[in-house]
Amino acid sequence: MSKKTEISFEQALTELEQIAENLERGQLTLEESIKSYERGMELKILCQAILAEAEGKIEYLSKSGSGETQKKTASPKSESSSRAASPPSDDDELF
Amino acid sequence: MEETKTYSVSEINSIVKQLLTGPDILRNIWIQGEISNYSKSHQGHIYFNLKDAKSLIACTFFSYSNGRYKGKPLENGMEIKAFGGISVYEPRGQYNLNISKVEELGQGDLLLQIEELKRKLAAQGVFDPERKRKLPAFPWRIGVATSPTGAAIEDIIRISKQRFPNIDILISPCLVQGDGAPESIISAINLLNDPKWDVDLIIAGRGGGSTEDLMAFNDEKVVLTFAGSRVPIISAVGHQIDSVLSDLAADHFAPTPTAAAEMAVPEMELVESGLAEFEVRLKTALKNQAGNLKEKLRILTNKKAFLDPRSMLNDRILQLDEINSRIHLLGKNYLMGAQNKFSPVSNGLLTSFKSQLERKKKEFQLLSGKLDGFSPLGTLKRGYSVVRKKGKKVVTSPVQLEKEEELEVILAEGRIRVSYQGEIQ
């Protein structure tokens, strides 16, 4: 997804689409086609890496005692619980 | 006394039914009153009377209709507005109101207020379609402004994780109904708009409820907060009948929080298969190009010039020969034509030339015969010889010679070398 790398997932995907279209049009020289193919594969690997790097965290914003907003990780869902996640704790001021 | 027709009870009830259920006015009507004699069957059907100060009307609210009612639980003494049509239960000869929709009393005022605010904000351009932004196709982190304990957040998390397990979810908890809810919603949305949280899109909303329950999402300041969100925002307020104003102000809206998560989060499987598809496309395109080039090369190398260059040369030689022959033939034909054209003249010229030649030949023979008489060759044939020194000087006297000097003697049929020994006295 839009991981903040030198190129975002969206940009990589847009460029990949462009490369695929250019290659499919068949207007490039063989040398240009090979270069485009290599770039395309590079982008595909980059996209996969970005997807794999995502952490999938669930966090809550809450106010600390000093009134500053902070991020807190939600408690992981327990096997028996039907809840997807729980707020950090009752001590945190959520609203 | 006039005789009149006697009807059966069933006939009369049937006639009454036709009379009551026929007119449009009785098919879609709102009736306002107080609930009394409330009861609910095991099948989930609700029966009660609606009454005012003077009279009452029996009402049925079947389960297929009352399941959609999200307001306060109905009870005796509650003032409501019911929408439905008059129906007749013939076996008992009773007519009642078959209800399809119920609103708590006061909702009409609320709806009027909402409508008024809607007009005002629309005039300000708050709902203009051109203000709507596209949602990011691949959000890295979604912010959710909702109650941390409601079903909405659970639905959003569950659906988001189902679709894309690695997505980050940042929850900005807020109250979603009652006093203080508008300020709480505004604060939650504003927090998520802070760039430091790096949120790609926001889902703000709650599960379903009555018009009153959803009123926080019709609050003017809340609606303006939706409209002014820096980050693209989805309004996800669970409702089915009328939309709330936050829906109109947000970039996108979903009828439920679940639908909002489906709208916001791409499916990991689809993304991955899309990437795999790209690889296939790239490989196929390159393969096709290589194949095309290969084919071109094959066609080229199968050309005669490559397969049998000598035959190409031979062809050229034959062509050249043919051209030469044609030129020669053309020349010959031309000459013959010319000859034919000039033959009378040329024949005359040729005859006179031949006779002149004969004459000249004879003259020449005569003169060369005379010349032979003067030729030294003739003298030599008669036995004379010529003596020459080495320097080819002809010797005419012994005084010209040195002792032992080599001399050349030319005879009629050859030459000899001799040595001078001395003068003969």
SSE topology string of chain A: HHEE
* Biggest sheet statistics of chain A: 2 strands, antiparallel
Proportion of strand residues of chain A: 5-15%
β-strand number of chain A: 2
Q: Specify the helix fraction band of chain A.
A: 40-55%
Structural class of the helices, strands and pairings of chain A? alpha+beta
Strand order of the largest sheet of chain A: 1-2
Please mark out the parts of chain B with pLDDT under 50 across 5 or more consecutive residues, or reply none.
Answer: none
Most residues in contact, chain pair and counts:
A-B, 45 and 51 residues
Notes on the protein architecture:
The complex is a heterodimer of chains A (95) and B (425). By secondary structure, chain A is of the alpha+beta class. Chain A has helices spanning 9-25, 30-53; strands at 58-63, 69-73. In chain A, 43% of the residues lie in helices and 12% in strands. Chain A has a two-stranded antiparallel ribbon with strand order 1-2. The radius of gyration of chain A is 22 Å and the shape is rod-shaped. Chain B is of the alpha/beta class. Chain B starts with 8 loop residues before the first helix and ends in a 6-residue tail after the last strand. The model of chain B has no long low-confidence stretch (mean pLDDT 87). Strand 1 of chain A pairs parallel with strand 7 (168-173) of chain B, so a sheet runs across the interface.
